[in-house]
Amino acid sequence: MKAWDVIIIGAGAAGLMCAIEAGKRGRRVLVLDHGKRIGRKILMSGGGRCNFTNYFVEPGAYLCGNPHFVKSALARYTQWDFIALVEKHRIAYHEKTLGQLFCDDSAQDIVDMLVKECADAGVSISLRAEILAVAELGEGFSVDTEAGQYSCHSLVVATGGLSMPKIGASPFGYRLAEQFGLKLLPTRAGLVPFTLQPQDKETLESLAGVSLPVVAESADGTRFTESLLFTHRGVSGPAVLQISSYWQPGEPVRFQLLPEGCLAQGLAESPSQELKTWLARQLPKRLVETLLAREGLVNKPLKQYIPKELAAIEQRLAAWPLQPGGTEGYRTAEVTLGGVDTKELSSKTMMANRVPNLYFIGEVMDVTGWLGGYNFQWAWSSGWCAGQVV
Ligand code: FDA
């Protein structure tokens, strides 16, 4: 049985960051991954350009059953620390929007950077490593793989969430947490497009490809100002992905298609203009036609509506309700909500409170960020923290 100081399961964002930091401290580190490539999610992230962090990272951008949990790690390894690492490797990047930082060239640059840092820190990485069993062994653990048996003092679980099973996502981390008696919070797909109820699908399907800026609001009052995209399957776009993480089945989502007060202003400026013509100046034309039919709105010059009618139309368009049929699920979701309960872990080290030397980092735990680089930042920050102590 080959002995290591640290075994990390998962060669994704969090696992690699932890490996680098532990390696730099002189620990003998082995990273095991059942995939055939390192950092596959990094490679496909951000449309192939990896949105690796965000200028505006703050604890409020994370969903977690224990909201204070993320504060320590995010403060100890910040977006500025990761940006410094990217700059050290001379990777060109840019801000796309809302503080989101992307590589100019390719997400491969980020993977190459992590692999180089691992090599410099003396980290060993073993791919196509199927893990058969994990057990406690003295103060540490034994890890049985198809390729052989290992022992380690510290075991770090960095197996990520359930989204995109096609590229290696597995429930391994959750099962391991259960094996050691750690509590799990229910998992569900997050940052995911909505599907529609059959009757909505019929009326909205023809809008596939239409996109517009909106404010999306969930039943709990969370709001995101981003764009909405109609698709053949339902609705997507950043506004929908963001709000999906706050959505509960059965609840409606409201989209502000037009700001309040703008129809009254339209009446003052162009009283003779028909509602349809006026709306088509504010919204995509295809959407206007569908909206008029769907909402049963009579089309006439704005001055012919009584104020109550105009106010009702305005109210409807300022909070247009849509009841999703569901989500597209883990097949297309960017993240998994829920996971290992953070109450089981130290917010400083990510070690399980009740199982010495067992650590959980990254998406496998119940921490989910907004769209826009926040999830990678959590992987870097939590991985870095564990890397200081394993
Ligand atoms: P991650 O999933 O990266 O790594 C887990 C590793 O564990 C994988 O390599 C997997 O093969 C391995 N593994 C799983 N089960 C195993 C087992 N049984 N045995 C051995 N190994 C196992 N976030 C962001 O901030 N900016 C972005 O641009 C994007 N874009 C994006 C696009 C798409 C399409 C997706 C699906 C996701 C994103 N994300 C994102 C989210 C981001 O990718 C995600 O939050 C992080 O990769 C999580 O990092 P982890 O290291 O925790 O898991």
UniProtKB/TrEMBL annotation:
InterPro entries: BaiN-like, BaiN-like_dom_sf, FAD/NAD-bd_sf, RsdA/BaiN/AoA(So)-like_dom, RsdA/BaiN/AoA(So)_Rossmann. Residues 188-335 form the RsdA/BaiN/AoA(So)-like insert domain. Residues 5-388 form the RsdA/BaiN/AoA(So)-like Rossmann fold-like domain. The keyword Iron-sulfur does not apply. It comes from the Bacteria. Keywords: FAD, Flavoprotein. Its cofactor is FAD. This is NAD(P)/FAD-dependent oxidoreductase. The keyword Flavoprotein applies. It comes from Zobellella aerophila. It holds the Pfam family HI0933_like_1st.
